[in-house]
């Protein structure tokens, strides 16, 4: 720009000198200078007018051709215009590719703006949610009226949220999974997946496991009965006693596996409603501790610390299964002479039951998968201890049915701590006995 200014100034000086020379030739240099400068000024104003008219016309076509500094300005603007046009074409091509790729997806994608208002969606989302072109600008909750989804959308959580599963609007046979991600200025992206086939396959798997497990109970009972009879009589010769004992042990192990599979299948069945009975926590922990001491056979020290008298509203059998699985696992994976600490306490977040052992510990890489069915950190050791690989999966489903969570802390070769967390609304205070009742209890 500085070079252009110098060039234009040189041009101005040459025009002025030319006018002065012509003026001396004509005999009046001042009039010639004024006339020349006026023509130069009119030329500049005319070029500016052409430039403004070209800008007002949307800068269509090439810039006006001229000379001097305005010619250079025209050329610069035209080059910038061409570069912007190429970038705009690239952007449009990229947007078309993105739109074509999202249109080809089987998952539905919905873009929301101004909170929950529909801005754009792909054909899959329109088919799954029943959206039409005229629905743009309306709130998504007007089309997905499930109360769980309404509260899910109106929650204050930001970023990626856990997926929500619900029936499709207007078609109860379809099961949808919706995942909402908040971003930008009150904008959101909703991913909609049809998981009906997965639900059906999962239901088939559950039914198969439950039916097979149920059918296995009768032959296992018959086999176990005959084995016990043979071992308790003199019919079997001495060389057969050891094989019979091993057969009885494996039959018992298989029966335990079948029972765990049946329990897990029952817990996974959505139609199975949870009980609402107040379960005395201190009594439950005491019973589990006695079972652990019996199972340990004196090889471990089981300590109990119950800081508050509380009750958990739920299913007594399921809660006992969850507590017992954690404690028996601690016994199985703790070396002889180790201490197992059972603790119950309450705070503002709810009630907590922890099982701390001094066992072999767990590598952090295995912790996220511990609640999977049949997942074993050390397969050989698990089989030797008689585990089925379903204990923590049962604990997980019991907690889901009781609105609870589980946290795991472990260090290899130092031990592990498994903690069950129950929300405050699932807890009730243990009633204080009346003086009359206390006197009757003392007399008994």
UniProtKB/TrEMBL annotation:
Q: Specify whether Signal is a keyword of the entry.
A: no
Specify where it is mainly localized: membrane
Q: Which UniProt keywords apply?
A: ATP-binding, Cell membrane, Kinase, Membrane, Nucleotide-binding, Phosphoprotein, Transferase, Transmembrane, Transmembrane helix, Transport, Two-component regulatory system
What InterPro entries does the entry give? Answer: BphY/WalK/GraS-like (IPR050351), HATPase_C_sf (IPR036890), HATPase_dom (IPR003594), His_kinase_dom (IPR005467), HisK_dim/P_dom (IPR003661), HisK_dim/P_sf (IPR036097), PhoR_N (IPR021766), Sig_transdc_His_kin-like_C (IPR004358)
Domain named Histidine kinase: residues: 211-426
Q: Which residues cross the membrane?
A: 12-42
Q: What is its EC number?
A: 2.7.13.3
Question: Which NCBIfam families has this protein been placed in?
Answer: phoR_proteo (TIGR02966)
- What name is this protein filed under? histidine kinase
Organism listed in the record: Microbulbifer spongiae
What is the phylogenetic placement of the source species in the record?
Bacteria, Pseudomonadati, Pseudomonadota, Gammaproteobacteria, Cellvibrionales
Protein's gene: phoR
């Amino acid at each position: 720009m500085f070079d252009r200014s110098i060039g234009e100034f040189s041009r101005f000086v040459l025009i002025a000198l030319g006018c002065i020379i012509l003026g001396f030739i004509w005999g009046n240099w001042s009039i010639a200078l004024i006339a020349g400068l006026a023509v130069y000024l009119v030329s500049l104003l005319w070029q500016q007018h052409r430039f403004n008219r070209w800008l007002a016309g949307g800068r269509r076509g090439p810039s006006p051709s001229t000379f001097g500094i305005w010619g250079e300005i025209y050329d610069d603007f035209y080059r910038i215009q061409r570069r912007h046009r190429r970038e705009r074409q690239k952007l449009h091509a990229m947007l078309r590719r993105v739109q074509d790729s999202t249109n080809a997806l089987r998952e539905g994608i919905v873009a929301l703006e101004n909170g929950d208002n529909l801005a754009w969606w792909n054909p899959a989302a329109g088919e799954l949610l029943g959206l039409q072109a005229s629905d743009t600008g309306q709130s998504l909750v007007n089309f997905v009226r499930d109360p769980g989804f309404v509260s899910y959308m109106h929650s204050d959580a930001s970023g990626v949220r856990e997926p929500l599963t619900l029936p499709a609007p207007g078609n109860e046979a379809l099961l949808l999974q919706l995942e909402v991600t908040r971003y930008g200025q009150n904008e959101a992206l909703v991913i909609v997946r049809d998981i009906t086939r997965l639900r059906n396959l999962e239901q088939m798997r559950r039914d198969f496991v439950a039916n097979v497990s149920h059918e296995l109970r009768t032959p296992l009972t018959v086999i176990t009965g005959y084995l016990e009879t043979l071992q308790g009589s003199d019919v079997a010769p001495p060389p057969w006693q050891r094989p019979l004992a091993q057969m009885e042990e494996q039959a018992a192990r298989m029966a335990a596996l079948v029972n765990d599979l049946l329990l897990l299948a029952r817990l996974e069945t959505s139609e199975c409603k949870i009980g609402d009975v107040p379960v005395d926590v201190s009594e439950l922990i005491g019973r589990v501790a006695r079972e652990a001491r019996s199972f340990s056979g004196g090889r471990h020290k089981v300590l109990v610390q119950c800081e508050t008298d509380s009750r958990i509203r739920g299913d007594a059998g399921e809660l006992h299964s969850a507590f017992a699985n954690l404690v028996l696992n601690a016994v199985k994976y703790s070396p002889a002479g180790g201490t197992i600490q059972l603790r119950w306490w309450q705070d503002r977040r709810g009630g907590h039951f922890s099982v701390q052992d001094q066992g072999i510990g767990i590598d952090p890489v295995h912790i996220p998968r511990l609640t999977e069915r049949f997942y074993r950190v050390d397969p050989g050791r698990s089989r030797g201890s008689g585990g089925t690989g379903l204990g923590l999966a049962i604990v997980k489903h019991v907690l889901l049915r009781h609105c609870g969570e589980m946290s795991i802390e472990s260090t290899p070769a130092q031990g592990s701590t498994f903690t069950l967390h129950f929300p405050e609304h699932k807890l009730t205070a243990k009633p204080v006995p009346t003086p009359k009742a206390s006197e009757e209890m003392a007399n008994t």
